[in-house]
Write a structure and sequence with these properties.
- By secondary structure, the chain is α+β, with helices and mostly antiparallel strands.
- It has two domains: 114 residues, Alpha-Beta Plaits (2-Layer Sandwich), CATH 3.30.70; 37 residues.
- Helices cover 42% and strands 21% of the residues.
- Helix 2 crosses helix 3 and helix 2 packs across helix 4.
- The radius of gyration is 21 Å and the shape is elongated.
- The two termini are 32 Å apart.
């Protein structure tokens, strides 16, 4: 599995609109990042200020967009898929950031993203040996099994077995 984390400087005056845009993005299977089938997850957070060791706020200018993602394919391929499969969303999200070259220039997006890359402190890998596609299929099967359990809860054992065989075999 590959990952990318970047701290992207937000253009002055674009912080509030970036926050609103991120808040409106659908999550889970409806997320635009889900269109890149190899994506396990992607996260966006606007960081306006930091907290020091004494819990005091430190204004961070310019604000930064923290972007992280984990995926099954090489980083260059994932960034090209980002530009190809969700160009409008990529331009809306990253367009608030200084120097974003635009989704019509995938090699420049890769260079820009890598120039702002940071080393993540940890990774969330609930299924480290599974591809994103395998995880999606497993979740779909889990939903199917839960629906089956609810629909068949009152069936006699033989009828339950017949329904199970007809549904899952």
């Amino acid at each position: 599995m590959n990952s990318l984390a970047a701290l992207l400087p937000i253009t002055e005056g674009a912080e509030k609109s970036a926050k609103r845009l991120i808040e409106r993005l659908p999550a889970g299977r409806m997320s635009p990042f889900a269109r890149i089938e190899s994506t396990h997850f992607a996260r966006l957070v606007v960081i306006s200020d930091l907290i020091d060791r004494r819990d005091k706020r430190i204004p961070w200018q310019p604000a930064r967009l923290f972007f992280s993602a984990e995926f099954d394919i090489p980083t260059a391929g994932w960034l090209e898929a980002l530009c190809t499969l969700l160009p409008q969303e990529a331009d809306e999200i990253f367009g608030a950031c200084a120097g974003y070259p635009g989704s019509d220039r995938p090699p420049a997006v890769k260079a820009w993203m890598v120039a702002h890359a940071v080393r993540p402190g940890f990774s969330v890998r609930g299924n480290p040996d599974a591809t994103a596609g395998e995880v999606v299929k497993a979740l779909a099967l889990r939903e199917q099994l839960m629906a089956f359990a609810v629909d068949t809860r009152r069936l006699a054992p033989q009828a339950l077995q017949r329904r199970f065989d007809g549904t899952f075999r």
